[in-house]
Amino acid sequence: MTDTPIHELADAYLRGETTPTAVTEAYLARIARLDDRLGAYLTVTREQALRAAAASDARYRAGTPLGPLDGAPLAYKDVLCTRGVRTTCGSRILEGFVPPYDATAIERLGAAGAVMLGKGNMDEFAMGSSTEYSAFKPTRNPWDLARVPGGSSGGPAAAVAAGLAAGGLGTDTGGSIRQPAAFCGIVGLKPTYGRVSRYGLVAFGSSLDHIGPFARDVTDAALLLAAMAGADPRDATCVEAPVPDYAAALARGVRGLRLGVPDEYFIDGMDPEVERAVRDAVDVLRGLGATVERVSLPTTRHALATYYVIAPAEASSNLARYDGVKYGLRVAGAKDLIEMSSRTRAAGFGAEVKRRIMLGTYVLSAGYYEAYYGRAQKVRTLVRRDFEAAFGRVDLIVAPMTPNVAFKHGEKEDPLSMYLNDVFAVPADMTGLPAISVPCGFSAEGLPIGLQFIGKALDEPTLLRAAHAYEQATPWRTRRPSVPS
Amino acid sequence: MDVVIGLEVHAQLLTRSKMFCGCATTFGAAPNSQTCPVCQGMPGSLPVVNRRAVEFGIRTALAFNCRVNEACRFARKHYYYPDMPKNFQISQYEEPLAEDGALEIDVDGASRTIGIQRLHLEEDVGKLVHEGTLETAQASLVDFNRSGVPLMETVSRPDLRSPEEAAAYLRAFRAVLVYLGVCDGNMEEGSLRCDANVSLRPRGSSELGTKVEIKNMNSFKNVQRALEFEVRRQAEALEAGLRLVQETRLWDAERGYTRSMRSKEFAHDYRYFPEPDLVPLRIDRAWVDAIRAGLPELPRQRRQRFLRQYGLPAYDAELLTHSQALADYFEAATGELPQAKLVSNWIMSELLRVLPADDEAAIRAAKITPRHLAGLLKLIEDGTISGKIAKDVFQKMVVSGEEARAIVAREGLTQLADEPALAAVIDQVIARNPKAIEDFRKGKTAAAKALVGQIMKATQGKANPAIVNRLLEEKLSKI
Amino acid sequence: MPDAERPPMISREDVLHVARLARLELSEPELEKMREQLNSILTYIDRLKELDVTGVEPTSHAVPMVNVMRDDVVVPCFPRDEMLANAPDRVGEFFRVPRIIED
Ligand SMILES: [Mg+2]
Ligand SMILES: [Zn+2]
To answer: What is the domain range of residue C41?
Structure first.
């Protein structure tokens, strides 16, 4: 039951084969048994989950379920605000913070009948690619506990992969949904910027932050997106455009679709097993009737550097509010306000967060703005133009999600080598284009490999359709890790 | 030395809700009762622009003949202060709402044009209550009710040449805002706040001297006093051969001087960058034209009309139109009694004795309404009461809100105009004052005045002075 | 060396200045490590100088949109107790902070 996709669960509920409460209890039991080893959850909301499941039971009994997500047990990354449930962002500085409001995405999933199992672990303030930078504990990769699940949304990704949640929500600022999805062998979808409201998402890089689903398969990803997407008066950057029927788009196959494979996404030092798996996947797509051609995205080489100006700059600003005045941590014994705030921030933030705050403050400071931030915003335009040019010829970009499979805990000590892990992920964040990672094979050591599709703005239907066609043509989604208890 | 002053005015806009959230903007609510995650900068909250605030900004920009920028956006301005929840203020920087306007002011009968450099929108901060003074407090308390209230910042060019001009600019500025209905202009409640840049330079020189910023001047009177102090301080320092430092100084109204804020407090690096949570504004012509079409008559236009339509002296027209409420009051009263100069005199000498000219709300709420005042003046005109009695009645009307006629009737203040009765009183007074009569015969005309006083006293001031004068003159001429 | 090829060097004083702007107290060992790491990241970022960006307009929003505004309508505020519940220190209905002026 804990490896069934959501859309099949809903069918089982409708047929009366099982109930939301039974499934929720099964997940809670599995969490209790396995999460000590995995570290996927920061908070398990047991009582709340059982109450929501019971309400869902009643709706099915009455013949009035809310839709395909009614009774779906989910894990939410702890960067999303949950009313009355502590929201830490994986940081000591927000330890004990209880928001008086729900994120719009969570409110909408709740309204669709989803059951929150708990809040997933993450790199502190979503800064990281391994979930080793959580202030509370690392999360482990269910395929190999010595390895990282990716990050920053490693908690919910590992939970979905290990059968500790039927689906989940992550956030993606520089690959933080898609990279852990690739490392954990599940589906991770980053929608178009503005497709899902950011209200209640604790900001990291506001112009780059996206909310999106983790799922066992593409169909579930489509259902989760459909429930969250659409205009929100509380987010001025949220797109007004109507939400298409994503699930209905899935069945159309890839025949006639033009796929572009970017030269710049196959780089020196890349894991040959990853390259092989991706090239094989492209062949599968060609075999399904898609046309494939090479495209060039020449600014790719500069995208990561651009990202490491813009994201820290915005982060340094967004994180200025954690000063010990209104919520979260405050160190005792400071003689004045400046000392109180400086010490609170020193004690409350981890090393990676401090690094990015320093970097971001530096690139915005007097005399450096134009050289760094101003220039990065212009390079961002060049990155966007690359994709515009490519999308003049193709419908979708197909590329590797990461240059390598999941690495070991403690393997990437140097910040820069950690950053380089997201080199294929950040262009979609910088351009806001929708992108998805789907499993496309395993390394010789049995570690998952991710295939990335990048689509045109708001063209999630085509993105999901291609990902679904590939998924249905390959066996990867049926493989599940076995986590020793 | 030439005095060079520029003013930076922050005006609180009269919107119902805050700049970026739906919280109410009501003044004086219980601490922290008007907040939400957005205006308290809670994690995950996002701002959304209040359309009316933008429209008020455009309205004001048009009144000052500014260029409304088609492309306009918000930016974050960073500094740490505990009354600012996000530790950045959403303001505007490189692309403000409007630029390059002007305001005409009148000082000593001469008209001057003061340039307006820019006008932009931003959010207000919360309020700090210090346990003691800022310097001595061991702790401070924060109330975020005001946090996020929309502000419009308008920066003048350094065109002002004296503290008087600065005060005149501020008064004229305030009048425009009040006329536009975008700000209540209440300096005491902080709806209008003014900072000044002051420098001195050798007469006729075009280069600017060392600029000092003055903060914390919270009334018209204080603006002028603070600037007078600062100009004197700088002049004395320069005369003594001292070099001035570029700094921020606080006006201390109680002690009557400006004092330096320590350099650390303003060594800012604001690290502005475009606010990523808000999309840019594109203010097209149609929107601007629609707002322009709704502009009301502005203070200068109204003053011109008062001169033309009512034949008022320039002084009266200027004073009355500075306050929209006062000008409205005048026009309402004149509508009842079309004797403009009489109405104007009474407003300026009596009404403004009891109500401050810049307190629009108090004038609008005055118990003595324009109709009441006109009613009182009609009683003078038709001879029912004397001007002197009218002043007493006015005082009573201010307190009670009654009509003049009711007070006059109740207190028996109706003027004595009965000629035989008055003649009898006059005869008695003449009979009682042989000495005064004697003096009058000897040519001391002042003696007649003393007799009038006696007659008025005998009638408790109710005698019609014109009739008394005529009858007394007749009788004295026969003596 | 031409400007474009010179690696950025961030000094100890720069790090201290930035830390002060960012309200971060750094220990002595943290400071030196931070300086090294920032230098290495900035050296990587320096590759942005290779690109000619003259005449390129900056992108600050991924999806171009304009004029998203709300009507001036008052919505109920959050209950004060909820807004104060997370305060690390409070007095009655206020947040409380230590003395603002440094000694
Ligand atoms: Mg300002
Ligand atoms: Zn609010």
So the answer is: 3-49
| Predicted confidence (pLDDT) at residue B195 exceeds the cutoff of 70 | yes
Residue A86 buriedness (CB in 10 A; 0-12 / 13-18 / 19+): middle
Question: A111: Cβ–Cβ under 8 A, 6 or more apart, which residues?
Answer: A66
Ligand closest in space to the Cα of B123: 1
Cβ of residue B85 closer than 8 Å to a chain A Cβ: yes
- Spatial contact of B93 and B280, defined as CB atoms under 8 Å apart: no
Q: Distance between CA B38 and CA B44 in Å, rounded?
A: 9
* pLDDT for the residue B107: 86
Q: Answer whether A337 sits within 8 Å of C53, measured CB to CB.
A: no
Tokens encoding A281:
């996947």
| Peptide bond preceding B349 in cis form (omega within 30 of 0) | no
Query: Does the beta carbon of B80 lie under 8 angstroms from any beta carbon of chain A?
Result: yes
Tell me, yes or no, whether C92 lies in a domain.
Answer: no
pLDDT digits (tens, 9 = 90+) for A37-93: 999 999 999 999 999 999 999 999 999 999 999 999 999 999 999 999 999 999 999
How would DSSP label each residue in B154-183?
A: EEE-S-B-SHHHHHHHHHHHHHHHHHHTS-
What is the pairing mode between strands C94-98 and B212-217?
unpaired
State both tokens at B425: 């009183």
pLDDT in tens, A272-323: 999 999 999 999 999 999 999 999 999 999 999 999 999 999 999 999 999 9
The reply to whether A316 belongs to the active site is: no
Chain A residues with CB-CB distance to C9 below 8 A: none
> Minimal Cα–Cα distance from B28 to chain A, Å?
22
End-to-end distance of chain C based on CA atoms, in angstroms?
Answer: 46
Task: Name every residue whose Cβ is closer than 8 Å to that of residue A298 and which is 6 or more positions away in sequence.
Answer: A264, A386
> Rounded mean pLDDT of B275-288?
97
The whole-number pLDDT of residue C101 equals 80
Residue B51: burial class (beta carbons within 10 Å; 0-12, 13-18, 19+) = middle
Residue C17 is part of a domain; what is its CATH number? 1.10.20.60
A103 close to B (CB below 8 A): yes
Q: Does A281 reside within a domain?
A: no
> A152 catalytic, yes or no?
yes
> A193–C23: do the CB atoms touch at under 8 Å?
no
CB A209 within 8 A of CB A307: no
Whether A91 is catalytic is no
> Residues 51-80, chain A: which have Cβ within 8 Å of C?
none
Of the residues A349, A381, A413, the one at which a domain ends: A381
**Dihedral in degrees, nearest 10, Cα atoms C52, C53, C54, C57:** 160
Question: Tens digit of pLDDT for each residue in B430-476?
Answer: 888 888 888 888 888 788 888 888 888 888 888 888 888 888 888 88
CA-based angle A80:A82:A85, to the nearest 5? 125
Catalytic residue among A56, A77, A412, A456: A77
For residue B278, the CA-to-ligand 1 centroid distance in Å is: 18
Domains defined along chain B, listed by start: 2-290 (no CATH), 299-411 (no CATH), 419-477 (1.10.10.410)
ipTM value: 0.96
Active-site choice (A56, A130, A176, A437): A176
Nearest to B277 among A202, A236, A326 (CB): A236
Q: What is the nearest CA distance from A204 to chain B, expressed in angstroms?
A: 10
pLDDT on residue B475: 84
What is the distance between the alpha carbons of residues B380 and B389, in angstroms, rounded to a whole number?
A: 9
Residues A326 and A211 placed together within one structural domain of the fold: no
> Coil, helix or strand for B57?
helix
Considering CB atoms only, which of B42, B49, B273 is closest to A236?
B49
